[in-house]
Amino acid sequence: MIVVSPAIAGTIIAQSGTEEQKTAWLPGLADGAAKLAFAITESDAGTNSHNLATVARRDNDGWILNGRKTYISGVDESDAVLVVGRSEDERTGRLRPALFIVPRDTPGFEWKPIEMDVTAPEEQYACFFDDVDLPAEALVGGDVAGLDQLFAGLNPERITIAAYANGIARYALAKASAYAKERRVWDVPIGAHQGVAHPLAEAARQVELARLITSKAAALHDAGDKAAGEAANMAKLASADAALLALDRAIQAHGGNGLASEYDLAAYWGVLRVARIAPVSREMILNYVAQHTLGLPRSY
Ligand SMILES: Cc1cc2nc3c(=O)[nH]c(=O)nc-3n(C[C@H](O)[C@H](O)[C@H](O)COP(=O)(O)OP(=O)(O)OC[C@H]3O[C@@H](n4cnc5c(N)ncnc54)[C@H](O)[C@@H]3O)c2cc1C
Fold first, then answer.
1. Which CATH class is domain 149-292?
2. Is ligand 1 within 6 A of the CB of residue 124?
3. Could you state, in order of their start, the residue ranges of all structural domains in the chain?
4. Angle at which helices 194-222 and 228-253 cross, to 10°
5. Which of 93, 181, 186, 191 has its CA 20 to 30 A from that of 42?
6. How does pLDDT run across 99-142, given as a tens digit for each residue?
7. What is the pLDDT of residues 144-183, one digit of tens each?
8. Ligand 1 lined by 46 (C-beta under 6 Å)
9. In angstroms, what is the span from residue 275 Cα to ligand 1's centroid?
């Protein structure tokens, strides 16, 4: 599973790809037969994507791509990587954002696994692009500036991550409730103790609220409403926070069993914890809300 493949790459190609790119990629991205990893993060740029140093220079009819990316999910499972870099504007000579589809077996493109202590559904990779020779058609959308294309893919990704966090939260709470009704260590089930019941009830309330804002974000996105950006950001943050709380409380209600493989809870901690960092961090979402919802000035 690569969440970014349909959520980011699929949306970008559907909205900005050439007809050839849509025909080549969309059916497979929709049914899962084709996968596109998504590569924007660079070690030296971090959260500041204005500092990207991956650059494509024109070469005859095509492009020569050079750069490095890090923490790219699922390269091993993907057919190609959608790389966010910069290319030269022919008229102004200035560098501008541009997205390129780089097939995994392209000469000059190498990828190496990064050892992670927290496991997500996908493996993470460092990617190296050294004089990668790409045809003109590798540029997403032909000769169009890439930043709008990139932003188009972000709301569906946030909504998708919110939805899977909500799903894990509901799973954890259902497991915890079932366990708390059965497990007795005194003369009543542990769920009868308010010390066990209230933390689960409080988490259930937060998960329900997270699901509501997720539905709102999805409806606004489907309607093409500009307010989808604010709602999608809030949905991702609310859902990741609510799901981590729900999972932690479900583990607590299981006592020692909550950490055992047999009870299948603790293994979900990694994927939920990542949702607070990638592809956009908790702090950058709060920056977005501070600026767009509250009209506060930015510090960066
Ligand atoms: C498991 C995993 C999977 C990933 N998958 C992908 C992928 O498929 N493709 C991809 O391109 N990237 C991927 N990433 C990278 C991820 O998107 C970045 O790690 C994330 O955007 C944060 O960037 P950074 O790690 O460079 O943190 P930094 O930019 O170094 O930030 C460090 C901390 O400072 C905070 N910070 C930075 N600037 C500000 C500010 N202005 N205000 C407040 N706080 C700030 C950040 O929020 C963060 O908490 C993945 C990362 C992980 C861990």
1. mainly alpha
2. yes
3. 4-142, 149-292
4. 160
5. 93
6. 999 999 999 999 999 999 987 889 999 999 999 999 999 999 87
7. 555 666 776 788 999 999 999 999 999 999 999 999 999 9
8. yes
9. 11
